[in-house]
Write a structure and sequence with these properties.
heterodimer; A: alpha+beta; Phosphorylase Kinase, domain 1; 2 domains; 21% strand; globular; B: 179 residues; Arc Repressor Mutant, subunit A; 9 helices; 63% helix; 0% strand
Chain lengths: 257, 179
């Protein structure tokens, strides 16, 4: 990849908007190009300065009261008699952000059968249930360590998989430990990562000889999940981090970082 | 008068995003009084068009309306102080790349930039630059969500964010605070 091309991809890379393949190509260029690598560092510095120091202006209680007072009490003329109390759960094209990061190149590359939509949904729901149970139980980690050489053997001695457990601290996703859990009827190894103030759980279980599948994303109850199958392992990442950040994380895990 | 259940639903969905709505309006308009008027107008518009909300992310839907309310307000109160649209640079590719030499001694000093200075520099950016940076960094929206809010293609969002960051960094470098 040439500098001209890489330069246009540095911002999307910093924002976690590239497919893992594209991100990998840019990073390969960065390893050889100090100038582009420096630009990426500066973009990161600018982003963190903005995130940490710009004042967030909160609405005054008076504004909420004022809005409550001016909203008309009656049904507006446009209203139709049968208004659904709830709205469709799944909305094509609303995308929920994750598609921006995962759609396009990544999905077209994986032309082989993806997880069926129904299965992705089932796994997504199961992952969210298991993840939030662990978060609220105060038992999020069985073995707290950032050492992959401790986490990986500890997990593979207890579950019939050898999960990826790279420490992605340099990429903004430090490894913080491991845990055993159950998901969708399977005994799973959970590799636990952190991103800023958020916990990311990576569930991994044995998929037998099933072939690889493309990542599928789900968003519900404020959680994002991405599930895929790779090297005979079913994997699902679940967290309350932003959709783009989770996609960035999955790209790094899938690239074998 | 019995409370309208639909109004209750609108309040439940929309009022939790009041801070996000106000923050965007405040950063765009530049002062609290105008921002409050814009947000109030946006909630009234939102209520009027609530039928068109088909689910999905209420924050995205609502902030798109706040933005429309802001643009209307700006048209009605044409303020020479506010420049919303950035001039379209001829060589878009060039403007996104840092033009100074790498390993510049100033590199990464942005880490220690004073928050008041950064906020002040932000106000000097054209509104459409400020807007995408705020949506990205303060609300953590993806490019696709920003595209939905601003009604622009994702590719445009991508290049606008790149140009906005380059412009902000240049302002910082040109200011007296770059030491």
């Amino acid at each position: 990849m040439l500098c001209d091309r890489a330069a246009t991809l540095l911002n999307p890379l910093a924002d976690g908007e590239l497919t893992w393949l594209k991100a990998w190509r840019v990073r390969r260029h960065l390893a050889r190009c100090p100038s582009c690598a420096w630009q990426l560092e500066e973009i990161g510095a600018l982003r963190s300065a903005m995130r940490t120091s710009l004042p967030y202006h909160r609405a005054s209680p008076a504004l909420a009261a004022r809005i409550g007072a001016v909203l008309p009490g009656e049904v507006p003329p446009a209203v139709r008699p049968a208004i659904p109390a709830f709205w469709p759960r799944r909305l094509p094209a609303m995308g929920m952000g994750i598609s921006g990061a995962l759609a396009g190149v990544a999905l077209t590359l994986f032309v082989q059968s993806g997880l069926s939509e129904q299965r992705a949904e089932t796994i997504g729901r199961a992952a969210i249930a298991a993840h939030s149970a662990a978060m609220t139980s105060g038992h999020a980690i069985d073995i707290p360590t950032s050492d992959r050489h401790v986490v990986k053997p500890w997990l593979s001695a207890r579950v019939d998989v050898s999960p990826p457990a790279a420490d992605l601290a340099a990429e903004g996703f430090p490894l913080i430990g491991g845990r055993l859990d159950r998901i969708d009827g399977h005994k799973a190894a959970v590799v636990v990562y952190q991103h800023r103030q958020h916990v990311i759980d990576l569930y991994v279980w044995n998929a037998g000889n099933a072939s690889d599948t493309a990542p599928r994303s789900e968003t519900r109850q404020g959680f994002n999940t991405i599930s895929w199958r790779q090297s005979g392992m079913d994997m699902v990442a679940v967290s309350d981090v932003a959709a783009g950040d989770l996609a960035d994380f999955v790209a790094k895990v899938a690239a074998g970082g | 008068m019995a409370p309208d259940p639909r109004r209750r639903q609108f309040e439940l969905l929309a009022l939790p995003h009041l801070d996000a709505a106000f923050n965007l309006a405040r950063w765009l308009a530049g002062n609290t009084a105008d921002a409050e008027d814009i947000v109030q107008d946006a909630y009234l518009r939102g209520w009027r068009y609530f039928d068109s909300f088909r689910g999905g992310d209420m924050r995205v839907w609502l902030l798109a309306i706040v933005r429309t309310a802001f643009l209307t307000w700006m048209k009605d109160n044409r303020s020479p102080r506010l420049v919303f649209f950035a001039e379209d640079p001829a060589g878009a590719e060039k403007t996104t790349a840092w033009t100074d030499a790498p390993r510049d001694p100033e590199a990464l000093l942005l880490d220690r930039i004073d928050s008041a200075v950064l906020a002040q520099l932000m106000t000097r950016l054209p509104g459409e630059y400020r807007e995408v940076l705020l949506l990205r960094e303060m609300e953590d929206f993806s490019y696709l969500e920003i595209a939905q809010i601003t009604g622009t293609p994702v590719g445009t969002v991508m290049s606008r964010i790149a140009r906005a960051r380059a412009a902000l960094r240049q302002l910082w470098k040109d200011s007296d605070h770059a030491m």
